[in-house]
Amino acid sequence: MGHDNVPRAERAFRRKCLEVWCAWLVLNPDAMKVFAQVDVLNGLIHRLIEGVDVCEYDPALVPAYAELLARVTTVLRFDRRLREGLTVCDPMFREAICQRQLRQTTSALSENAVGPMGS
């Protein structure tokens, strides 16, 4: 037993699950755009500042993402459990991202609707 009376094997499993999720996001920049509202390929960060949607350009984001992608790719070559986790979890993660995108779109449409039919 260790931290918070969680067995070591359980902590290792939780950590691997988090590693799989993070690696999957790095390998799927479109999903990162939906999940974190960060466009790593174009260096854009979407934020809500005082109720206003703002899209900010950060020139350091693209090279930082390239470094992170290279690191994930390297780790994948040596970590069989991470590769297996990605294979198993990919469909589930894709579904979760689709559901999140659907909720965001539905929310945006309902906020923009004026009348009962959006007119």
SSE topology:
Elements: H1 8-27, H2 29-36, E1 38-39, E2 44-49, E3 52-57, H3 61-78, H4 80-112
Antiparallel strand pairs: 1-2, 2-3
Describe the fold and architecture.
- With 119 residues, the protein is mainly alpha-helical.
- The chain has a domain at 3-82.
- The protein contains four helices and three strands.
- It has helices spanning 8-27, 29-36, 61-78, 80-112, and strands at residues 38-39, 44-49, 52-57.
- The protein has a three-stranded antiparallel sheet.
- Strand 2 and strand 3 (52-57) form a beta hairpin.
- Helix 1 (8-27) crosses helix 4.
- It starts with 7 loop residues before the first helix and ends in a 7-residue tail after the last helix.
- The model has no long low-confidence stretch (mean pLDDT 87).
Order of helices and strands: HHEEEHH
Return residue spans where pLDDT drops below 50 for at least 5 consecutive residues: none
Span of the ends, CA to CA: 60 Å
| Overall pLDDT | 87
User: How would a crystallographer describe the biggest sheet?
Assistant: 3 strands, antiparallel
State Rg: 18 Å
Order of strands in the sheet with most strands: 1-2-3
